[in-house]
Specification:
Rossmann fold, alpha/beta, 485 residues, 5-stranded mixed sheet, 5-stranded parallel sheet, globular, 17 strands, 15 helices
Length: 485
């Protein structure tokens, strides 16, 4: 490969922070840094700041035009907004909803049945970036799928469409969309047979549409370079990274990512026994899955964590102090523990970790519980690694993040079955996204990065948000003094 022996630059351009990892040819972490995302100018400005900082610290850094060595993912500008239009909510629309989550999309609208004028208006009001049009098993009902294609074709919903429904109706659907010049991509049916969900083709199509239409449409950068470097939406890259982790470790893996706006849970599990041929549910579980909890954000949605904890009967510690802290960080999402009063840093860090415990436990319960009443919980009992992510865990004092993850593993009252013998760890160097970005073109490097995430420690030179060189000792559960990620 042309990149053999050369460093690789992996960058996650988030809505708040841009994080970068400089990796050696064997996947070893050479440097890691973060800087505020430059949405007010050009997002590549922040990327260049990080690259220049690495170079100033003496590293070999690829030029941003070297596409084989520079790999980006992005959730800037609000991430990927997906609408799902299906046939019957408990069947096709639910399958499309799950596929959208696996593709790294925030599902902002789900419509089921034949679209009416009011339904189209509601869809348009939710401003999706992409519409996933599904409906019917192969050879089954085609009437609703064709009706919805006709409605979308003549509507003012400008988002491109991914068609992933009844294969027998594909020609007629294409004719309707072509009639009005709509942008669309064809994918295999996400529900080819009752009880079978096949997300891979639709997930790939959503990624392609995201790269071709959405990144450029958000006007995050002035030229075409940014669009050419982005390989996936960030959640999509992370799920691929979790898949790589599971493959490299030879065990089931679960990741809890506690963020400022959402708490996301990823799991990659291998079905066994009866689960291996599961057909009892109308929509079978996805074994490589992601769930997004939009009401469980450490900053933007902090009050939602307390509300959800009350519903879940999870009593918070230091209730009065935690409530006061929640109100403060919700009003000022950029707040960090100890700002303005360093003497309160330790106490406020504990409050943040308590908030993280409630968010992580609630999100894990929702991820693991049955999708429908009477269904079976997601089979997470064989998970070998529970990995924590998110700034609150990466930057926690020694033992703090471990306590949050062990609380998740000890949660036996939430209607789910937690992992029985999982090893908790924290992705302190924030490398799961990098493993996902590398998986397609650099699979061996991706596996080495995945192995490194689960190793005890890694040495690296980092660069802080002001370009200063920082020596890191990144260890499982360790704290690193870089910008909030």
């Amino acid at each position: 490969m042309a990149t053999a022996g050369l460093t690789l630059l992996c960058v996650d351009v988030g809505s708040t922070f841009t994080k970068a990892a400089l990796l050696g040819p064997d996947g070893e972490l050479r440097a890691r840094a973060a800087t505020p995302t430059t949405l007010d100018r050009d997002v590549l400005t922040g990327v260049r700041t990080l690259a220049e900082g690495f170079e100033a610290a003496g590293h070999d850094v690829p030029d941003l035009t070297e596409r084989e060595r520079v790999l980006l993912c992005s959730s800037a500008g609000g991430g990927l907004r997906l609408a799902v239009v299906g046939y019957e909510r408990q069947v096709t629309a639910e399958a499309g909803h799950r596929v959208g989550l696996s593709a790294g999309a925030k599902v902002v609208h789900v419509a089921a049945g034949a679209l009416r004028t009011a339904d189209v208006a509601a869809l348009r009001a939710d401003r999706p970036d992409i519409v996933l049009l599904v409906g019917g098993t192969d050879g089954g009902n085609a009437e609703v799928l064709l009706h919805n294609a006709r409605r979308l074709a003549s509507s003012r919903v400008g988002a491109p469409i991914v068609v992933a429904g009844n294969r027998e109706a594909r020609e007629a659907v294409v004719a309707e969309l072509e009639r009005t010049g709509r942008a669309f991509v064809l994918a295999d049916n996400v529900l080819p047979r009752i009880g079978v969900v096949e997300p891979a083709s639709a997930r790939f199509a959503i990624r392609e549409v995201f790269l071709e239409h959405v990144i450029g449409g958000k006007r995050l950068s002035k030229g075409p370079l940014f669009g050419s470097l982005v390989r996936a939406a960030t959640p999509d890259a992370v799920l691929t990274g979790v898949e790589t982790l599971a493959d490299a470790s030879g065990s089931d893996v679960m990741v809890v990512d506690v963020g400022g706006a959402t708490t996301d849970v990823y799991s990659v599990i291998t079905p066994e026994g009866e689960d291996a041929s599961l057909r009892k549910e109308v929509v079978a579980p996805l074994w490589h899955a992601r769930t997004v909890e939009g009401d469980l954000g450490m900053r933007w949605n902090a009050p939602g964590i307390l509300e959800a904890a009350e519903v879940e009967a999870l009593p918070p510690q230091q209730r009065a102090a935690l409530t006061e802290w929640v109100l403060r960080v919700h009003e000022r999402p950029a707040s960090l523990p100890g700002e303005g009063d360093p003497a309160r840093a330790a106490a406020e860090q504990q409050l943040d970790l308590e908030l993280a415990r409630l968010a992580a436990t609630t999100a894990a319960r929702r991820h693991g519980r049955p999708a429908h009443p009477g269904g079976a919980p997601r089979p997470l009992h064989n998970v070998g690694h529970l990995l924590g992510s998110g700034g609150v865990l990466r930057h926690a004092q020694e033992g703090g993040a471990d306590a949050v993850l062990r609380a998740v593993l000890a949660d036996h009252g939430g209607g789910w079955r937690p992992p029985e013998d999982a090893r908790p760890a924290v992705d302190t160097a924030y490398l799961v996204f990098a493993a996902g970005l590398l998986a397609a073109d650099h699979p061996e490097v991706a596996r080495r990065v995945a192995g490194q995430i689960l190793d005890e420690s890694v040495d690296a030179i980092g660069v802080d948000e002001e370009g200063r060189s920082v020596t890191l000792r990144v260890a499982t559960g360790a704290s690193i003094g870089l910008a909030e990620g």
